[in-house]
């Protein structure tokens, strides 16, 4: 139950971080010199969010070998949250990886940020320094999440400089 709640919470966090785009398809980021915005995400308050007829779409980047597992999770999540749709984005295609996940480009995190709202991989200091990773602390505080509902090791692994 806790794992399921953790996935649900992850998806809910990303709703606040996702962009509101009219684009129906997600292009694969292939540029070798992407232009990364200085502040690519903004935190919005619930009062700022307007009701729309179309559901919010969260782009979730995963490896090809994990596709079947995440398709099942996304399906269950969408059934429980009909106002949110999950679009699975291939990390392998986005980064142009060779078989076995080899050949990560120098701009991998910039490519992932432009192709997806959430990644299913770890991050690096460089991605944090470039502003490609959102500090979720304000969202956690604003929505009164009980941090005891999460695995302590997962939280510790995901924190950087206290955020």
Fill in the keyword field for this structure.
single chain; 163 residues; alpha/beta; 3-stranded parallel beta sheet; 7 helices; 3 strands; globular
Describe what this molecule looks like in 3D.
It contains 7 helices and 3 strands, in the order αβαβααβααα. The chain has one domain (2-19, 55-158). It is globular, with a radius of gyration of 16 Å. The chain has a 3-stranded parallel sheet, with helices on both faces. The protein is of the alpha/beta class and 163 residues long.
The tally of beta strands, per DSSP, is: 3
Structural class: alpha/beta
Rg for CA atoms: 16 Å
- Biggest β-sheet: strands ordered side by side in the sheet: 2-1-3
Report low-confidence residues grouped into runs of 5 or more.
11-48
Count of structural domains: 1
Shape: globular
Mean pLDDT: 73
Helix content: 25-40%
| Cα-to-Cα separation, first versus last residue | 26 Å
> Beta-strand level of the residues, as a percent range?
5-15%
How does the major sheet shape up?
A: 3 strands, parallel
Order of helices and strands: HEHEHHEHHH
């Amino acid at each position: 139950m806790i794992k399921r709640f953790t996935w649900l919470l992850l998806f809910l966090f990303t709703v606040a971080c996702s962009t509101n785009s009219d684009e129906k398809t997600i292009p694969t980021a292939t540029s070798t010199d992407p232009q990364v915005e200085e502040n690519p995400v903004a935190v919005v308050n619930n009062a700022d969010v307007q009701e729309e007829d179309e559901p919010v779409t969260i782009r979730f980047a995963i490896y090809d070998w994990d596709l079947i597992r995440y398709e099942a999770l996304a399906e269950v999540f969408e059934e429980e949250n009909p106002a949110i749709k999950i679009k699975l984005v291939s990390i392998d295609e986005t980064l142009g990886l060779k078989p076995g996940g080899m050949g990560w480009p120098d701009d991998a995190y910039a490519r992932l940020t432009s192709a997806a709202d959430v990644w299913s991989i770890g991050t690096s200091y460089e991605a944090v320094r470039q502003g490609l990773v959102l500090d979720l602390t304000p969202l956690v505080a604003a929505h009164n999440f009980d941090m005891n509902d999460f695995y302590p090791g997962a939280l510790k692994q995901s924190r950087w400089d206290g955020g």
